[in-house]
Amino acid sequence: MGRVRRTFSRAELESFRDAVVPDLLPTRPGQELRLLFVGINPGLWTAATQTHFAHPGNRFYPALLQAGVVTERIDPAAGLTEDERDRLRDRGIGITNLVHRATAKASELDTAELKEGGAALTALVERLRPRVVAVAGITAYRTAFGRPKAVMGRQPDQLGGAELWVVPNPSGLNAHETIPSLATAYGEVARAAGLLVDS
């Protein structure tokens, strides 16, 4: 039986405001965390489906596919299946957020929340020891870590012992990016994490 794409009314989505979406992290022995993607915070659709980057307009999973980071199409709009979650974990991919409460827009977050999120992310990385951390969003990164002049790409400092990158946010609201440009950026961090090898 095929999966049915979910739809939500505005009122239904609003009911998920401030909800929390669990991190996608290794759950069993042998699952090595190589690449930890960090979103800004969950959107309401993500909260409703309990799946990171789930909004139908988000380009995260199509960009991963185009980059070769994943090999099978993932449609998160109805929520990821446990098999899809395990395929990401088995591949060495994890997902978390700087701030865990859901909002309609990232602009609803304040500076204090982002700074607290940066400190919590550092502690998580120190505990889990991924090879590479990729923060998806330059403005949120600058605020969370007090780096007002930071630019996209690999950062000069590590985070909790991991190589640190800032990559473009895949939200459909980020009009400067396309699936191909996101795929290029995500392919770079995947190579740094040892998930892709140039032939």
Automatic annotation (TrEMBL):
<dbReference type="GO" id="GO:0008263">
    <property type="term" value="F:pyrimidine-specific mismatch base pair DNA N-glycosylase activity"/>
</dbReference>
<dbReference type="InterPro" id="IPR005122">
    <property type="entry name" value="Uracil-DNA_glycosylase-like"/>
</dbReference>
<keyword id="KW-0227">DNA damage</keyword>
<protein>
    <submittedName>
        <fullName>Mismatch-specific DNA-glycosylase</fullName>
    </submittedName>
</protein>
<dbReference type="Pfam" id="PF03167">
    <property type="entry name" value="UDG"/>
</dbReference>
<feature type="domain" description="Uracil-DNA glycosylase-like">
    <location>
        <begin position="26"/>
        <end position="183"/>
    </location>
</feature>
<keyword id="KW-0234">DNA repair</keyword>
<dbReference type="InterPro" id="IPR036895">
    <property type="entry name" value="Uracil-DNA_glycosylase-like_sf"/>
</dbReference>
<dbReference type="InterPro" id="IPR015637">
    <property type="entry name" value="MUG/TDG"/>
</dbReference>
<keyword id="KW-0378">Hydrolase</keyword>
<dbReference type="GO" id="GO:0006285">
    <property type="term" value="P:base-excision repair, AP site formation"/>
</dbReference>
<dbReference type="GO" id="GO:0004844">
    <property type="term" value="F:uracil DNA N-glycosylase activity"/>
</dbReference>
